[in-house]
Records
---
Amino acid sequence: MSWKYIEKIEDVIPSWLYRGTLPIKDVNTLAELGKGNIEEIIRIHSRMLSDTLSEIEKRKNYYEFIKGKSGKDIERLSQEYDNPTFSSSFIKYYMREDTIGKDYEPAKREDARKRGSTNFNKCGWCEFSDGPRRYDCVLWGDCKLLSGTGLFGEKKLGRKIRFYYDCLLKELDRKDFEKIEEAYKRILDELEKKRIKEKGIIEELKKLAEGLEHRPYLPQLRSPELFKKEAEVIVFVKGGEKTLIREEFIEANVVRVYDEGCVEFVAKKKWHTGNFYEGRGGSCGIESPQILPKSEWEYFKRNPDYLRLWISLLKEPEESFVQHLSHIPKKKHSKNF
């Protein structure tokens, strides 16, 4: 089968799904991930397509607003909104943990205004400003109408917007607005190409998934549905001061999955000296490879080649876990394993 939209695997698998160099080099290797993993990757691309469609709609609306205008038109619009002047008691320096050094912020909550109240006058409460907020005021950031155009970014003291800045759009003439319109045409053209590519990748991935068997999910693609109440799991428990057993892996049953993605389990036998479920309880993140549905454990025992591929795609695996898991196809297991 020929692939029109899957030009390179890096276009298909987002960089946050793996560490270092992507071990999957072609579509054939991608197919080795199995039906379930590819369906989850399709869901990722479906969300990306949805975001692209939303961005296209937003940019079209901004373009329609900008089209045909000049600074004088923005000046007339601005008269419908507040245009406050700020005293030194209102604008103060604040030390913030998330920034280096000091920065300006509104000093009092009671002085704050509503979002959209200073449109085309002061950036802080303009509905088209975007960035970190305090008291519903955008402290610094970007003008949504100019963001991505590559225009006029340095006109304001070499910085982007600040909440006390006057609207830049009022200073622009018709030629400036024509440049903005041309930039929007380029942006919309690029977004349309992105939409076509994303849709094409989804369709080609659906074709690729047809007829493939289900294989163990990559931990970073797991759904909470994989760990339903009382589901059988295998958990890696090697090491730790409170560990009582010599085994690296234990059998357990799921108790619950919390909203934040934590799987709570109870082992079939006591494995630690703590009080959690009298030494049988434990918990593990849903994206941790150290907890496995028992069916996936059994699959790994029968399919060492897939196990190696699965391990190569783990993001930050613990070395001892990888060493012990890599040997499970070679071990003789009791009837319980």
---
Amino acid sequence: MYIQGRRGYNKALCILDSAAGHSSIDADYARELGLEFGEPRIKTLNYLDRQAQVKAHEVTATLTAQDKVTTFHVDLETVEGFAKLCRLWPWSKYLSRHPHLKDIPKPEYPEPPTGKILIGADNVNLLRVLEYRHSKRPNRPMGVKTPLGWGFIGQDPTGRDATADDAPICESPVYKMVASRELAHLVERQFEIENLGTLEPLEGPTGHTLNGPKPANLWTPEEKLAEERMVVSKKVVNGVPRYKAQMP
């Protein structure tokens, strides 16, 4: 994908993370692009064993998809040192080794491949899957097309175990119509507090102000749907437990 800076459009790699509550950009990269920084604010991050505080600025960026046509305006939070910890796999160099992926347009990005932008649940429309490309053989790498372009996941990225039998299968997901904006807000809140309706000191979607867990009989249809999206099911196959979770 591309991001607009003071000298035009720049090639960039973007990480799509549905488990992230906020979209982010490496602070040094934002400065290099000449993006305008908002007023600084202190964020408190809650971990299982501690809390941490970081300073962040909000910036607005223009992203252009891999097709060089579709454009999106997104709000991002700066993170100091983000890119230093985000070295990514150079998928473009190895797509030709995978028969089921080789005809996908190769993403263009500067070397070495480094993630400088992360899109989270606050930009949920950019996380939509438009097409899956996978092999008839199980456990092969998969191509995932989103509004920003193609991304790749899976084991054996070098194609060492690829064979001519890796014929491509293309699938497009069918989406159920929901109030996506409110649902995205609810899913984001679920990630942040880890349990829907735990403590709600602020006014919730139903207009109530609560100081504790909200009874399930007071949940809105959107809240119930958000909860269903977070359910993890378990079954035992040949004595081995397997878990299945949905992507929000």
---
Amino acid sequence: MKTVTGRSSGGRSSPQLVTENERPYPWRQIAGIAAGKTLMRGSFALVSICMNEILLDIYGGNLTAVARYGSAISSVNTLVSFFMQPLSGALMDKYGRKPFLVCGGILAGILRGQVGLNPSSLSYTLYRLFLPVFYAPFFPAFRATMSDLLDRRSDRYAQAMETIEWFGSVMHLLCLYLMRNTLTPSQGAILAGALGISGGLLINFTVEETLREEDRREVEYESLGNPISAISFFKKNEQMTKLGLLHVIVTVPYYNTTLGMYRRQRFGWTMSQMTSQQMYSMLFSLGSPFLLLKILRTLGNKGTMILEERISVIQNIFNICNSNESYSWVTTFLAALQFGDTGFNRELAIWSKGCRCGEGELEGAMANINLPLQLLLPVFFTEMHIYFVEKFNIVYAPLVLTTVLHVTNGEFFIPCLWPENRN
């Protein structure tokens, strides 16, 4: 029997050991969910390019109008998710993961396909409004399923997740190639819908329910009446409180979504260049599964998070200073070394395991703890970008601010708030 530990920086072990059982590796289950998620990753790759182009066409190429519409609809999505995530998490712990895995892909595929068949302001708005209802629960259900099969604190869980991500990157790369060279935006949305539906059906026929009967939890409807109560998850012990606060703080700069608009305005990028940048990102990410465990074992969970913040600083400075668009691939190369989320999630899983929390409860709490930031910050960064462009012709103001935030996170907040081992 192999035993591994979650690690903090400096080689210190976290308080609980993770035992990798000698039971056979669940290859069939892993293969089924990996194949289904890979198809859905292809669907996402297509919409990440084609939906922006469809929206630009709807607004006649007005970047400011598109940016403001995007930040406003993101805030609405956040409110919908705020009420949906605790409910879907509780239902996931009661009735299982599979319904959310299957329905998420199928219903999201239908929404995406209808935008391609009938591109209009109404169809796009309906797509954005209902997507968090149908599709957002898929990702918590996926992580919960993988945790049921492979303890999320273990090395093999981290490795399996990165391997699935590797196959997803290959599919992402293929879909981006098609989007750049073959498909129109409407055709891309239609194909995205077909891939999403196919992914849901594939999971339905190949993946069994992983939630055991003895692990099912009753739905506490009184608690669900107040979704904010999910945040109490982080008050179960001092270490989880610190991690909850840390999660809120370090995610602030990641709500800056103006980089695409910055590149369009500074370099005149169109769909072709944006697609090429994503293709570079996927190519470099193919090496991530081979680096993940080495970085985690060398730096620990805490060090891995600090590394991500320092890399983000380098990326932002490069984006600000780079005047040659042909070198924009450098930032995507550096992104292949960023595993901060994995480090944080491993540490949280270690400290939360003794609280007998359901996987759905964990996912619901993680989704909702950042609600105020999710509502305000996308709009803030968008308006900040527009203001500095219109008043001073400065296109990189949000990048300067987020650089300062990344420095503060990596050098102060993570070291100060990281839970210490008491054993």
